[in-house]
Batch of 2 targets.
Target 1
Amino acid sequence: MSTGDWSCPVANHSSDTITMSHGAGGRLSAQLFDDVFARNYPSPELMAKGDSAVLDWTAHDRLAVCTDAFVVQPLVFPGGDIGKLSVYGTVNDLAVQGAEPVALTTAWILEEGFPIAELAKLAGSVGQAAAECSIRVVAGDTKVVERGRAHGCYIATTGIGRLRPSVNLSPQAIRSGDCVLISGPIGDHGMAIMSQRSGLLFDPPLLSDTAPLHRMTLELVDKVPGLRCMRDPTRGGIAASLNELATACGLCFEIQEASLPVRPQVHSACELLGLDPWIVANEGKLLAIVAPDEVELSLEILRSHSIGSLGAKIGTVHDLYKGLVIARTLYGTHRIVPMPAGELLPRIC
Amino acid sequence: MQSTDFGNPIHVESLVRQIHAKSTRPLTLMEVCGGQTHAILRYGIDQLLPPHLRIVHGPGCPVCVTPAETIDRAIEIASAPGVIFCTFGDMLRVPGSQSNSNANDLMHAKSQGADVRVIQSPLDALRIARAESQNTSPGSPNRQVVLFAIGFETTAPATAMAIYQAKELQLDSFSALVCHVLVPPALDAIFADVDHGIDGLLAAGHVCTIAGDHPYHRLADQFNLPIAITGFEPVDLLRGILNLVEQLEAKPTSYRVDNLYEHIASAEGNLQAQRTVETVFAVCDQHWRGMGSIPQSGLKLQPQFASFDASSRFPQRKLPGEQTSCCRAADVLRGKIRPIECPAFGTLCDPNHPLGAPMVSAEGACAAYFLYQALAPLNPIKLNPIKLTSSELTQSESPNPKDSLSP
Ligand code: SF4
């Protein structure tokens, strides 16, 4: 095909920004695939360049599938970027279900004018994060939208995982008397982003906690028979996750604020911005509900992983109230923790 | 969480014991600061008090008292072509007067294309205006940047500074929709009502750091009212409550203002901030949502800054609509009822479907009650929760939740 007489003003081969042609499925799309995506995460499935990836699967293995979209602003934030976040976020959705992450697809929605060098860095992050989690990026897509329509880029992912044979985690498995564990301090991701957006500086700096949870969760799944259910408390923070669980199992979650780990910087940033750490997003924290006699074992496992070193038991489950989350304050008083309304923290992940 | 972040539980315990020991009769105490409302409910301070001590919440939330007509104007200006409208996040969902319109708050105006930006400080709006005025790229005409300037004495200096600097910089694209209000005149209005039913007042220390404490001395004299100036932490609040209980139980011939807020440098407040405010603003009568017009309770731009007034720069087309609502914000803001006593609370009105501003703002009393509701049927206090020592509390886990929560 000859392109010599095209009048398209963007048919420049060595363009250093994204143009509409990069999403048009033609030569520039192919070049972008080779130079940016294939270079950074060249899985055999991706390099086969089929319309769909073909994965080998053992017949009786159960499959976990999740899908997620990432629209975080800014694209690069203290402690991570949208590339890492998209891989870890997907891995974590699989991990808390008790699945071992296997494969991932990524769809990039790019804005016209987005620098290709920046895109390459983000794709590099995806590649690195995927390698770190031993998960392959097996398929992908790229679309370009007009300038001003995407603030740089969005990433949408689908994750595929293999469930551990006997695992059956669900809120319905939760019993009165169970205990609630968290793998570390809450609110780091949301406050890292909010404080960067509002120009608040902390010493030491406040970093996102974005991290993959699957090694920790798989160890829990394998060693703790009394593991009932796990959650990755992202948007809406632990307030949202605990309320979802409480509603689903019809029991009451009573959390001791004195045991709830919160970094001092997160606490101050929340005070300044009028937010509550309970509703702030996490991207590398695990909430686990376990049988009471397996708390010590579970905490040992959490704390043996660097991302769980500050893990703690934060509360108990009981049946005195239906579907409620209650916080016990340091002073022995209590309050009901409602489901957060949630629109105050846009584009956090 | 670290106990130091919250105030020391041992101090709390001792203050609670003293309050219980000294308080013998029913009293109603009012606080007038959204931050204090928030802390009282967040930490369940009210649960620690003897049942006959009632805490009510005054007009302590600037968002809640901004008139519906002003919200209407804000929506109208924000929706005008070429405008960047800068507001505190709390204002986004406060309903205006057009309750049947589909753009009755700034959030909806934004979803329909208005460029509404959330700022943390009035000076952020000035920064946006400066950046816009330096944008010389062809085909992008300089856009008007409008600051929605609301708040009490504490935020007025930053608004004044933004407007003052805009004038110095001849930044014609900047203007402000001003709805600043002053706390003491509103308190005058509340206490002038002979049936106000309030025995003592907790005043907010950070307001006094700016405005000084003299307005409170006048209030105490005029209405023979005990006043404690205090902060937001549980220990501060309890010290304030204890002070009021002691004053009221002693039944002296006249009550006084006690300043328990160590951070106040001088009784006059921050004179430089006051001068900036006086340079830019003059005191005027002001309409308060739920409370009506209160003399000398608002701020308007001085004549030499009048060109920065957004309400005269942008023509008003829409007339305010009729307000029909069962919202009892007026009674909440005067301390006549507590939010849970409003029939709409938690049924017709919640943060997702607010009927009134106090259910929207983070500092609003209704939102604080909703966010930090206690389990209504139980009153687990009787001092037993405080029996734990602080070291027990840091690893606390009530072994049997039935002990701590049973009605
Ligand atoms: S609960 Fe709702 S309706 Fe009742 S006073 Fe508060 S804001 Fe108004």
Note: The interface with chain B takes residues 198, 254, 256-262, 264, 267, 273-274, 276, 313, 315-316, 318, 320-321, 324, 326, 328-336, 338, 341, 343-344 of chain A (CB under 8 Å).
Target 2
Amino acid sequence: MRSITYYGEPVLREIATKVEDINEEIVALIEEMAVSMEENNGIGLAAPQVGVSKTLFITHAPNDKLRVFINPEILSTSPETCLYEEGCLSVPGVYGKVKRSEKISIQAYDQRGKVFKLDADGMLARVIQHEYDHLKGKLFIDYLPEKKVAKIIKKLQNQK
Amino acid sequence: MNVIFAGTPDIAVPSLEAAMSCANVCAVLTNPDSPAGRGKRLVASPIKTKALERGIPVLQPEKLDQEFRNQVLELKPDLLISFAYGKIFGPKTLSCFSFGGINIHPSLLPKYRGPAPINAAILNMDEYTGISIQKLAEEMDSGDILLQNRIRLNHDETTEVLSRIVSFISAEMLVEVLENFQVLSVKAYEQKEEDASYCHILKKEDGLIDWNLSSKEISAKIRAYFPWPGSFTFVDSQRLNILAADLIDDSQLNEKYSSEEAGKVLEINKSLGIIVKTGDSLLGIKQLQLHSKKVLDFRSFSNGFCLKDKKLG
Ligand SMILES: [Zn+2]
């Protein structure tokens, strides 16, 4: 199991670099991330959230299996959007409504090194977009109104 | 790889298509056409329909006997893939396949061996269920596991909805197994016998609702038994089928009715449904059906039949 990196740690703001080789080390990282995600009741976890700045994330949305996305590319997003409350294991105790595309199409490699394409909607589409943002150094709170973010940051600093 | 795909209901159709995408499906094995509807016309299984549409030969033996095995041997198959076929394969049949057989079972084996694992996971309000692809063994659902994935449950899904989800995830997993068959065969691991549990064929009478249970338990049962065998209760000794009901998360309302008797219909609420007292709180019936009448939403139902103050059970 890997420990979660929290808001304020620079790795969460870095742009992650490509996984060059899907080797044993990466497979072990994925397995440890899966344990961390399930232990914390998360439905998605990106590598930067365990301190590894690599383009890789996993999801386990409701009514779905565990999915691994290595070097993902979002191919298309639907113009239809929806608003839904999100949270993040790296920003504990904070929730806020974020507008995301209802449907997306994504291409990535799985842990066996096979490329796949996936069309997702519902909760899975939302989780994928949230995790994909982590790889670009972006957090869901960046979408919230400035006033709310200021409050959140104050609260998070007090927690420390 | 030459494979024979054995399956019968809808849940197996995406897996048949998945098998066709990465192997040579030389025949499909499915149950004989069964009588259905008022006219008792013989109806082909969803798997047979799909196979004919894709031009694959269909085998529908009554018995898996020597005559059947001779037919199979002529096809020189490497692998048998089974998913909700409806018959058990003996060692003589399995030996017709050079790599034996594999089976898709929608549970986290060794949990819920047997015929109704999806219903069981919903009924027991499990946090996760899953899908296992196992080697076909002589004892039912006791084969070595090639691949297993967990599915996170939301606790609002019915068996109908979860079966559809399972059908698609199974298809993805089957592709993974077929593409990595040699590696996964070698790595296949034994089930822990001491953790085994079993589920049984559901019967119509299993659907009787006990209003003394908690709202969550009753909701789980209604979802687990939808659409088959269905859940029911009685009102004035008439059978009343309950097709959908929601939990009521309203502490004031729960407080107000806390001393009422389980099974009593308390009010017809415009948004919450027909409110019934349960063993621990309240439940809002949303869809129901009086014996041999039409299925109705609670509003239309209440126009013709007032359940208020009746005692169900
Ligand atoms: Zn996050």
Note: The helical segments of chain A are 24-39, 122-135, 146-159.
